[in-house]
Amino acid sequence: MNGKSIKRKAVILLSGGMDSSVVLAIATSMGFDCHVLTFDYGQRHNVELEAAKMQSVNQGAASYRIFKIDIGMFGGSALTDHIDVPKNSVSIDDEMKIPITYVPARNLIFLSVAAGFAETINARDIFIGVSSVDYSGYPDCRPEFIQSFEQSVNLGTRAADEKLKFKIHAPLLTLTKEETVLKGIELGVDFGNTRTCYDPDKNGNPCGECDSCILRAKGFKGAGIDDPVVLKAKSFKS
Prior knowledge:
Helix content: 25-40%
CATH superfamily: HUPs
Distance between the termini: 59 Å
Oligomer: single chain
Largest sheet: 5 strands, parallel
Strand order of the largest sheet: 3-2-1-4-5
Number of strands: 5
CATH class: Alpha Beta
Low-confidence stretches: 90-95
CATH architecture: 3-Layer(aba) Sandwich
Number of domains: 1
Shape: globular
């Protein structure tokens, strides 16, 4: 024994976007040994996969894995199917409307895979970057869903027979995008290496008009900070 304490392991769901990159930084700041899980699920904006890898490396994650699962075979979403991504959508202000960018059961699938992975590495903490404040109205970003999944995973896994239960951490759940940006700045997140846009161009530059871009812009504007991704895209065009 060298007297050093052993860090608790945690599985971090990392898309490569702004929110999940901040969540990785939060989990790291809490002292967790972070094992990153990224999904290649047939998304049209797969430029985020490289961003996730960069965030994982730059933030010193203990491990990084890409899990390939073709949710796109179901269809029904503008992120995985041959459907145009809505631009300048009103869905951001209409919580009763579920936009076409919603991917059926995405977070349910991701969290289930994360729980299985967590069991194999003896982790009981799972972090996800959902928000129920500034978001596009997805049902799998609501507090009730997170709470329900935590109950289910503790009934349907080995944890049911152990004293150590799963904990689903959603540290951004009640934060606005502005607060998320400020938290990321506080923790030293490199937002220039994050990708959020649902419909980027061939060079990975944001469209600036999809729900995700609009919400991201709202966060940076509210925080009084220039978005480095947007600045870089503008410099290429000028």
